[in-house]
Amino acid sequence: MLIVGIVIAVLAVLIIAGCFYFAGFALRIRGRSLEEARAWQEEHYDLSWYDPLEKEDYTVTSYDGYVLHAQLLKNPGNTNRYVITSHGYTDNRFGTMKYAAMYLEQGFNVIAYDLRGHGLNEPTFTTYSIREGKDLNALILDSRKRYPNASLFGIHGESLGAATTVASLKEKPPIDFAVADCGFCEITPVIKTVGTRMHLPVFLVGLVSACAKLRFGYSFGEMRPIDALQDNTIPIVFFHGADDDFIPPEHSKRMKEATKGYTEIHLIPRAEHATSILTDPKGYRAFVANFLATQFPGR
Predict the structure, then answer these.
(1) If you compute the radius of gyration of the chain from its CA atoms, what whole number of angstroms results?
(2) Which CATH code, of 3.40.50.1820, 3.40.50.1460, 3.40.190.10, 3.40.50.11030, is assigned to 45-187+223-295?
């Protein structure tokens, strides 16, 4: 019995140690450099328009003192339209350039930034929309002060950036619209998908979440952007790849049902995760243009 007890105790210690390790693995950011991200973008679409643009680099201090690096892409035309773009997990500002090109064409100045722990920012862990949503709110408030004459102001995010976009709505920010592309409504199912693909025991996700809470101060169960939509009235457009098997379209469908404001959803045929605008660039642009024209005529 003593031997059995020792074996059980050793197994328990190993399981707990493993859960603490995987909690760190799940929240650790393995980000690309700006150069790596730019190279990937240039391999997949035209980025020749970027260098000639007039740009302004600056930083914004978030709610807890964390410093975020941002860049304003100035529209060549005279415009008071602004949009903030938020990239996905492990990416950086260059991951949103495919959306920046669309907004520049539609008469916007674009504010691209590096999410917490990404790009030029100091290393830290991700909270899958909790701290990130507050960071985006800090950027929004800063932008409203920097550009007080903005006639139309929106936010657009992809994947983690989409979850961040949705989470930021909890604070009822001074924006006119939001666009969320392939975001998750809660992180736990995504963690389970990753665990399954790594052939890990999914039943331990709850324990890993508890370890994340102890180690980082946040559990997976708290990472639920959908909760920010309970009384949201800001118009929001959801995009999702119909063939996305990493973050399935059901996430966007659930968020569409949760929001109280004007909303629409577009499932892009044959698009996988974070590829909707690359799979159907003409259709994607048309959906956004129509939304802006019908909801904000003359602005």
Answers:
(1) 20
(2) 3.40.50.1820
Q: How far apart are CA 269 and CA 89, in angstroms?
A: 23
For 98, the token pair is: 């495919």
Q: 150 and 144 in contact (C-beta within 8 Å)?
A: yes
Ranges in the chain annotated CATH 3.40.50.1820: 45-187+223-295
Residue corresponding to tokens 């985006």: 136
Tell me the C-alpha distance between 268 and 186, whole Å.
Answer: 21
pTM above 0.90, yes or no: yes
C-beta of residue 152 within 8 angstroms of C-beta of residue 82: yes
Taking only the tens place, the pLDDT of each residue in 10-51 is 666 677 888 889 899 999 999 999 999 999 999 999 999 999
Q: State how far Cα 169 lies from the chain centre.
A: 13
Residues 6+ apart with CB under 8 A from 290: none
How far apart, in whole angstroms, are the C-alpha atoms of residue 128 and residue 149?
32
Phi first, then psi: what are they for 23, rounded to 5°?
-65, -45
Tens-place pLDDT, residues 59-82: 999 999 999 999 999 999 999 999
Q: Concatenated DSSP letters for the chain?
A: -HHHHHHHHHHHHHHHHHHHHHHHHHH---PPPHHHHHHHHHHHS--TTTTTS-EEEEEEE-TTS-EEEEEEE--SS---EEEEEE--TT--GGGGHHHHHHHHHTTEEEEEEPPTTSTTSPP----TTHHHHHHHHHHHHHHHHH-TT-SEEEEEEETHHHHHHHHHGGG--S-SEEEEES--S-SHHHHHHHHHHTT--GGGHHHHHHHHHHHHS--GGG--GGGGGTT--S-EEEEEETT-SSS-THHHHHHHHH--S-EEEEEETT--TT-HHHHSHHHHHHHHHHHHHHHSTT-
